[in-house]
Amino acid sequence: MNDFLNYLYSYAMEHLYLSEEYRLNRRCAERHLQQLEGALTPEQLRHFEVYQDSVALSDTEQSQTLFRAALKMGLYLGSLHHP
Q1: pLDDT averaged per 10 residues, the chain (length 83)
Q2: 71-80: long-range contacts (C-beta < 8 A, 24 or more apart)?
């Protein structure tokens, strides 16, 4: 993304409202992740970390793509209100 879109995306992510249910689910997932990581052998843990990095990159790309699509829709819808 270009610098301006990066700025808007960063601002939106910093001010994103996350429900208490979401936060609770994230804490629960973190506990389970810690248990899983503790049960893995060093080699399994290395593979799992590579997997997590790949998923994080994919999730970031998906999030940025959705943000760009939402921004385009908002701009288009906003232009419909101007005569």
Answers
A1: 85 87 95 97 98 96 93 89 69
A2: 71/5, 71/8
Dig out the tokens for 74 from the structure. 């908002």
Asked if residues 80 and 17 have their Cβ atoms less than 8 Å apart, the reply is no
C-alpha span between 49 and 37 (Å, rounded): 9
Hunting for tokens 């940025």 — which residue is that?
64
The answer to whether the pTM exceeds 0.90 is: no
Separation of alpha carbons 28 and 62, rounded Å = 24
